[in-house]
């Protein structure tokens, strides 16, 4: 029997990155940085993570919208190279998404995103791919595409018993019905606070945020806490992160999410899935770039 694919629905961007000694303050110019242009977007990053970290080729289908431009065509070529079943809808009016990223010497970053065609991905656009969503092993989404589309895909998947995972980034208010259709939600500290109103500075704060999200109907919650680790709502504890020298934290969360969904789709326990995802994310922060930093399964093993 052919293995079911993990479907990632979300954004694809071209990241324009400047790495320097520090991130400028408002109105300040900091010279001497290094420029790179890399493929990115939370959805595309997570799709690449799924494809590279899965046990077999062709494990990922990616649904997104691109502009009729060089960035959109490059996205299609890159997805093919990673063996991703790219289901790209072409927007004839809006350009492909772009992101401007500043990274300091410690790997911390600030990001400004122009959604472009990502912002026009509609329920009608994804309707031809409904069967792929309903027959998937899991559906992984973020919030760089319209909320209506995220909710529609979640409803289709939930009604067919497909595992639905939402990485609520960037944070936004979620409709009540969406919470009840989520098997997993994976906010970071800032996103957890914006969603719940609970300050998340430590494991105790994360536990309180988890309680709020569960009361709203989410089955399982992970709170990613950067260098502190990952708080698991099911386990009721914090899993410390692996200590590495960070070069660039861009796409670390996306790598974690893609790896985690791969692991739970393979039937691993939650602690095993967290360990696998933390290893993958730890490797990613030691490398510059977004998709270029995502490791392959053999590296994690």
Please write the CATH class name: Alpha Beta
Strand order of the largest sheet: 5-4-1-8-9-10-11-12-13
Order of secondary-structure elements: EEEHEHEEEHHEHEHEHHEEEHHH
CATH architecture type: 3-Layer(aba) Sandwich
The overall number of domains is: 1
Low-confidence stretches: none
Strand count, sense and closure of the main sheet?
Answer: 9 strands, mixed
Counting helices, strands and paired strands, the structural category is alpha/beta
**Approximate helicity band:** 25-40%
CATH third-tier fold name: UDP-N-acetylmuramoyl-L-alanine:D-glutamate ligase
Total number of β-strand segments? 13
How many H/I helical runs? Answer: 11
Let me know the CATH homologous superfamily. Answer: Ribokinase
Shape: globular
* First-last Cα distance: 26 Å
In terms of DSSP E residues, the strand content is 15-25%
Mean pLDDT: 94
Please give a structural write-up.
Helix 2 links the parallel strand 4 and strand 5 (85-91). The chain has helices spanning 42-53, 70-81, 123-126, 130-134, 147-159, 176-180, 189-196, 203-215, 252-265, 270-284, 297-300, and strands at 6-9, 13-19, 34-40, 60-67, 85-91, 97-103, 109-114, 138-141, 163-166, 184-185, 220-224, 230-232, 237-239. It has a single domain, classed as UDP-N-acetylmuramoyl-L-alanine:D-glutamate ligase (3-Layer(aba) Sandwich), CATH 3.40.1190. Helix 1 (42-53) packs across helix 9 (252-265) and helix 9 (252-265) runs antiparallel to helix 10. The longest helix has 15 residues, at 270-284. It is 35% helix and 22% strand. With 301 residues, the protein is an alpha/beta fold. The radius of gyration is 18 Å and the shape is globular. A 9-stranded mixed β-sheet has the order 5-4-1-8-9-10-11-12-13, sandwiched between helices.
